[in-house]
Design a protein that fits this description.
Coq4_euk, mitochondrion, membrane, mainly alpha, 2 domains, ubiquinone, 13 helices
Length: 303
């Protein structure tokens, strides 16, 4: 649902992000090549062999420490009616946009009230609107803007790795403040504005006292990160990249577990995946394995 809201609210901002890319040599090359970020397009084993301090090694180390993979980002959606794909006018677009937003809010309310054990009356679903998922994605009627949104989503973990920020609610919110200041995406702003309500008072105070000032100042003054061709910079020194982009480290963060423990868990999961390929090579060739922190949950994700 969060991804759906991100797709829907990003419409007015995506042209500005594309313009920023067109104004940059790297950005223009990204739009030309349209690279994707997943375990099929990025050789993780090769990156793991790069020297310490390189961007590629930093990225792989971050993935290992957080127990995530680049295969967990949802594709951007078409706006799709039961009667077929919509090539809409501006007015019609915002009509459907509003209905989709309300449907997302309704679903969120249902989920929240169910968890709280509350029974309330909610409006019916917008039954004539569906969300359909495509591997090759488009955003309404502009595939280039669809790619810009997909690029942002797939590069989100790069921002985590570059800034050295773990994956949890507190640090994710800090990065949302950073992204909103840097890119201006409404969904990042909404997450930053309301997501802190999930934190207890101590964590909320720490977020606004320490991390928000860093995120807003650093994000607003840094180079627009959507213009960076990260895949061309694997062998670059990560500290030099930070200086180039105008980024400095956030306040000290706390990791959920030591790096060695995280790497051991990753190695164990990698061994399990290799064994799976040996046992069933046909299935593993067509399926990505998505593992969460500590390998506690494993789910197939179709290509």
């Amino acid at each position: 649902m969060v991804a759906a809201l991100g797709d829907l609210t990003s419409g007015p901002v995506l042209p500005h992000m594309r313009d920023a890319m067109l104004a940059s040599a790297e950005g223009r090359q990204i739009l030309k090549d349209r690279p994707r970020v997943n375990t099929h397009t990025v050789d993780m084993d090769k990156l793991a062999q790069l020297p310490e301090g390189t961007w590629g090694r930093t990225y792989v180390t971050w993935l290992e420490r957080c127990g995530v993979t680049p295969d967990t980002r949802e594709p951007v959606r078409y706006l799709y009616l039961n009667s077929g794909p919509v090539d809409v006018s501006v007015h019609d677009y915002f009509v459907h946009y509003e209905r989709l937003i309300m449907d997302c809010i309704r679903r969120w309310c249902q989920s929240w009230t169910h968890r709280m054990g509350i029974s309330v009356g909610l409006p019916a679903s917008c039954s004539d609107i569906d969300y359909l998922y495509f591997h090759q994605v488009h955003y309404v009627n502009d595939p280039e803007l669809a790619y810009v949104m997909q690029r942002y989503r797939e590069c989100h973990d790069f921002y985590h790795a570059l800034c050295g920020v773990p994956v949890n609610v507190e640090y994710e919110l800090a990065l949302k403040f950073f992204e909103f200041a840097n890119l201006g995406l409404p969904m990042a702003g909404l997450a930053a504005a309301f997501g802190h309500l999930r934190l207890n008072s101590a964590k909320r105070a720490k977020l606004f006292k320490e991390f928000v000032p860093w995120a807003v100042k650093c994000g607003s003054s840094a180079q627009s990160l959507i213009t960076v061709y990260w895949e061309k910079r694997w062998e670059h020194n990560v500290e030099d990249m930070k200086k180039e982009f105008g980024i400095w480290d956030p306040p000290e963060v706390k990791w959920r577990r030591p790096l060695k423990e995280a790497q051991a868990a990753t190695a164990k999961e990698h061994k399990r995946r290799v064994q799976l390929r040996i046992i069933n090579p046909d299935a593993s060739a067509s399926v990505n394995i998505r593992c969460h922190i500590a390998g506690k949950q494993v789910a197939p994700v179709s290509e």
